[in-house]
Amino acid sequence: MSTLDEIFEKIKKYNRIVIHRHQRPDPDAIGSQIGLATILRDSFPFKQIKVVGKQIDGLSWLGTVDEVDNDFYDDALVIVVDTANPPRVDDRRYENGDYLIKIDHHPNDDPYGDIMWVEEDASSSSELVYDFYEQFKDELKLSAEAARLLYAGIVGDTGRFLYPATSAHTHEVVARLMDTKFDMVAVNQKMDSMSEAVARLSAYVFENLQVETNGAAHIILTNEILEQFKLQDAGTAGIVSLPGKIDTVSCWAIFVEQQDHSYRVRLRSKGPVINELAKKHDGGGHPLASGAKAADTNEINDIITELNELAVKYGENK
Ligand code: AMP
């Protein structure tokens, strides 16, 4: 029996299903989570399908989470989407179910769950949810609403089809999603718009980005700077890809100060592999899009040095 068959068998078996995703969710985390929930609710109206995790205001246009009692988990199937490692799963109760399934497209460095379906080459977890639907489409329903969610996830994780994980298959999936006639323009406008505060922070990033001749770049966003723009950590998502628009920049780090004065590190690349660097600093992720943590300015300086080394090596081997 294939992994997908096993997953479908479990979905059919359980009447209670809770779907989790990662903390600090992005459109793919929410799109794959609520997209899968929507497919399962439409296909099995008698089952109780719940989605949990912190509700994020800026992404509530995608959907909302459910209130779930602790005892709901007793005989529930738990599916965690888009989350490489257990500490990042939003809502610790994911361990309390009767059976646990991991569905993800990040490198499987931290395996967990009774069944794992991990496809590193997939553009997004939303693409995987579509593939799952496609495999069992005689028994599953894909509504325009489910398609809207999965499309938002794919657009989010591919940077609107810019990143290398975008494949011919990704475009085929989008074509099938579009067959449902969801309002694609509305999603595109949402994904392309920003608040005035983020627009002004973008100007700050371009103005103050430290760009090295070797191709590495970085910027440090302290709490003081974020307060100046009336933004918090979550508001920085919209500026993460900006340094990559500069033609000479090959990889970059954005350090965002947290309330405890440590730093969240957002690493991105157009070539040099940066996830090994992320792993050295309490993080991980994809080869070209990772996250890490820096305890203080010493660790920030270490990360900047290591990033420079990667950029130099990449430049030499090009
Ligand atoms: P972010 O910069 O938070 O958008 O994260 C980019 C990617 O890096 C995500 O898709 C995650 O796979 C990964 N990531 C971010 N933070 C961590 C972390 N602390 N540990 C492991 N992976 C992370």
Characterization of this structure:
- The protein has helices at residues 3-13, 27-43, 125-135, 144-157, 168-178, 184-192, 196-208, 223-228, 275-280, 297-317, and strands at 16-20, 48-51, 77-81, 99-104, 115-118, 210-211, 216-221, 251-257, 263-269, 284-286, 289-294.
- The longest helix has 21 residues, at 297-317.
- The termini are far apart.
- The protein folds into 2 domains: 3-192, inorganic pyrophosphatase (n-terminal core); 196-317, Diaminopimelate Epimerase, Chain A, domain 1 (Roll).
- Helices cover 37% and strands 17% of the residues.
- The chain is of the alpha/beta class and 318 residues long.
- The mean pLDDT is 97.
- Residues 84-85, 88, 106, 266, 283-286, 289-291 line the site of adenosine monophosphate (AMP).
- Residues 84-85, 88, 106, 266, 283-286, 289-291 line the site of adenosine monophosphate.
Largest sheet: 6 strands, mixed
- Architecture per CATH nomenclature, i.e. the level-2 architecture of the largest domain: Alpha-Beta Complex
CATH homologous superfamily caption of the largest domain:
inorganic pyrophosphatase (n-terminal core)
CATH topology term of the largest domain: inorganic pyrophosphatase (n-terminal core)
